[in-house]
């Protein structure tokens, strides 16, 4: 069987390629080019979307030479800009907090990249990545399941993958701990064995992407009281506590925005809680459960919830334990008792 491995230039995808080759697969490496030479970046900023991708591509090419597999770069800059960056900018400037990794996985990494590889003449049966997750099949339906390494689990970002995509994916690291992956890389002296883990999709000032000129606005509370001033609501995210530059008797949190007035709405901890949310743009691989577990961010422990269908394409999720910092535009992902992803949606 021939497998295309999506390589990021990091240790996880590198070990995935190595393990697949050792298992007897015919392996081909490919990296999606996202870096647009016309984009303005800060050189010290890392992330999958940054000028550092030039060095990441070089590392991936050297790695493929080291383990003896062919390698190709697939240009995904246009589709990434249209489906991820433009969406990110539109959502942010509408006062929501999008998750670009969710968008990228479903529309670019597991779609545009393998499609681009086929157009480039690369033949393959399966597509593999270095995600810490597993795929299982129940009643002829494919599901994503959490990886065994709870700290590295990436199932949250994969809930929007289709049945067609899941049927063709391999996750070689799903049964491994991160420490084991490092040891494998070191044992085989892979050139990326000591490379630090990648960070978010962009670790610098988000206005490098939003490209908005500063505009003076007010920090206000829910009563309209002015607490201070800022240079644009788009510099802040829901639930943010640090970096506000405001002296207060107790910590203040960003609760929301008034885009028309360019106001950032603040409140104390007792206002930064929520017991239920609504979500739309639903993706489920079966029936919507009434009782299950949920995550509203990738690193969160699973929390028990009740779910009800509240519209044609809308659910209401009731949390057994109140949650903090829930942001419109993020995803709520639902799991069963066996850590299997049931589906999810975008928080309204």
Describe the structure.
- The protein has 348 residues and is of the alpha/beta class.
- It has seven helices and 17 strands.
- The strands form four sheets. Strands 12-15-14-13-16-17 form a six-stranded antiparallel β-barrel. The protein has a five-stranded parallel sheet with strand order 3-2-1-4-7, sandwiched between helices. A four-stranded mixed sheet has the order 9-8-11-10, with no helix packed on it.
- Strand 5 and strand 6 (141-146) form a beta hairpin.
- The longest helix has 20 residues, at 100-119.
- The mean pLDDT is 93.
Q: What fraction strand?
A: 25-35%
Number of separate helices: 7
Question: What shape does the CA trace take?
Answer: globular
Structural class: alpha/beta
Number of strands: 17
Strand ordering within the main sheet: 12-15-14-13-16-17
Tell me the helix content: 10-25%
**Average pLDDT taken over every residue:** 93
Q: In angstroms, what separates the terminal alpha carbons?
A: 43 Å
Low-confidence stretches: none
Radius of gyration (Å): 21 Å
Q: Biggest sheet, open or closed, and with what strands and sense?
A: 6 strands, antiparallel, barrel
Series of secondary-structure elements, N-terminal to C-terminal: EHEHEHHEEEHEHHEEEEEEEEEE
